[in-house]
Structure formats: C-alpha cells, structure tokens
Amino acid sequence: MTAPLIGVTTSVTVGKYPERAYVNAAYLDAVQQAGGVPVLLAPQLGAAARAALLARIDGVLLTGGGDVDPARFGEPRHPAVSEVSPARDALEIELTHWALANGRPLLAICRGLQVLNVALGGSLHQDIPSDLPPALDHSQQALQQARRDQAVHHVKVLEGSRLARMLGALDVDVNSFHHQALKALGRGLTPVAWSPDGIVEGAEMSDGGRFVVGVEWHPEELVGHDPAARNLFAALVDEARKRGRR
Ligand SMILES: [Mn+2]
Questions:
Q1: What is the pLDDT of residue 146?
Q2: What's the gap in Å between 156 CA and the centre of ligand 1?
Q3: Of 74, 123, 72, 115, nearest to 97 (Cα)?
Q4: Cys-Cys crosslink for 73: which of 15, 33, 123, 127, Cβ 3.0 to 4.6 Å?
C-alpha cells in the first residue's frame, strides 16, 4: 500500500540572516510513526514548486509557529505579537483553501488552528494574558525548561464531534504553548474543545463530511505516551490514504 504524502508547513526566520525554513522534528516523527510521508512546504517555494507539490500531496498538516498578521483579520497589531511572516501566512491560507476545495484532510496544530480560523474569516485574541485575564497559563511559562511532552491543563471535547472520534476520548490532558486563541469563529467552523477557563482548544468544520480539524495543543510532542495524540496523526494519515486512492 502506498504511503500517503502529508504536506507539512514550515516556520521561516523573520528578520534574520541567513533566512531559513525550519520545522520541529516532532511533527516529522509523528507523521512517519502514523505511516505518512512528510513533505515540507516552505514559504520560500515559488508558484511552480507549490503547484507541483500540491498535485502530489494527499493531506495537510499546518504546524505551530509565530503569530498571524492581525491585518489579516482587520485589527491593529498588539505589542505582544511576534514572528509575523506575511509569506508564511499567505502560503498557509492558500493551502487551507486548496485543501477545502480539493477534499484533502487537514489537521491544524496551534498556530495552524489560528491560521485555519483566519483563513475562514475568523479573528484571534492576539494575547491571552492581555485579552482574557484571568486565564490559565497557556504558555507553560513556569516550565520553560521543562519537557514539551508534559501536560499542563485539561481539555473537554464535545461528544459526537469528529475530534472526539479521532481522539477516542472526551477528556484529555494537554501541553500548551500558545499566547493566542480563537475569538470570532471562521465560516463553517465549530468549536469542539475547551480548556477549563473557556478558551477554545479545538475546532472543526461543522460540515461533518470534511476532515478539517484543529487543536490548540501540541499532540506531536505527546505521541510517545498519549494514545489520543497518536490517534490524531493516524486519523489524518488514514484519511489521506483514502483520498490518495481516488
Ligand atoms: Mn492551552
């Protein structure tokens, strides 16, 4: 059986020389562990290279990283916003619309969920500590040097949601490395998971036929010990395999 190709978006250095594209290895490990072949999609790819890769990939993984440009949702930039890359925003928003138009499964992680929301016309809390006091610590600040696979808060998942079916659980303990969160939901997106302080930790397309799901936590760091985290990548790869056969 052919292993499906999963397009994995990369981060890009902002204002540094030399310019680089890069991605945490945990994403690549998680996709491979699930039986997929990661294909890196860097913002530096030109139109021809993008088109050539999109013709071949069976699924999309939007990864974590810097902040989306608030101009994308019509707000002035909060001082806490950092690592904004217009090139990365453009690639990932284009990729989101492409996945929707072409029926490819899409799993969005952390910034990825924020990109998905903004691509569909939603908006973001630009800085949780400024916008939403007194929220939980969602940036593991007390654990800066601690393991990234350490769970720091609880998440409740909506029964009957695609995310719940993917995880195989309605209650999960997760890590947390985000200072932003969903505000207004994008067109067609439904919130399906929340932390105890009410922050949206997961969302998906309400059209149940579409595999378009995002989580605010980092399951790629949890796959070593958390079956629910492994299930997310397995679900993406399995769906990509089905699409690839058509
Ligand atoms: Mn969180």
A1: 64
A2: 12
A3: 115
A4: 123
Q: What's the CA-to-centroid distance between 89 and ligand 1, angstroms?
A: 22
The span from the CA of 156 to the CA of 113, in Å, is 17
The verdict on whether 110 is a catalytic residue reads yes
Q: Is 178 a catalytic residue?
A: no
Q: Name the least confident of 43-52, 98-107, 144-153, 236-245.
A: 144-153
**Do 60 and 106 meet the contact criterion of CB atoms below 8 Å apart?**
yes
User: How many C-beta atoms lie closer than 10 Å to residue 173's C-beta?
Assistant: 15
Write down all domains in the chain, each with its CATH number in brackets: 5-245 (3.40.50.880)
pLDDT at 221: 97
| Catalytic residue, candidates 92, 201, 216, 220 | 220
| Residue bearing the bigger pLDDT, 123 or 140 | 123
218 flagged as catalytic: yes
Using pLDDT thresholds of 50, 70 and 90, give the confidence band for residue 209. Answer: confident
Query: Out of 92, 110, 201, 221, which one is annotated catalytic?
Result: 110
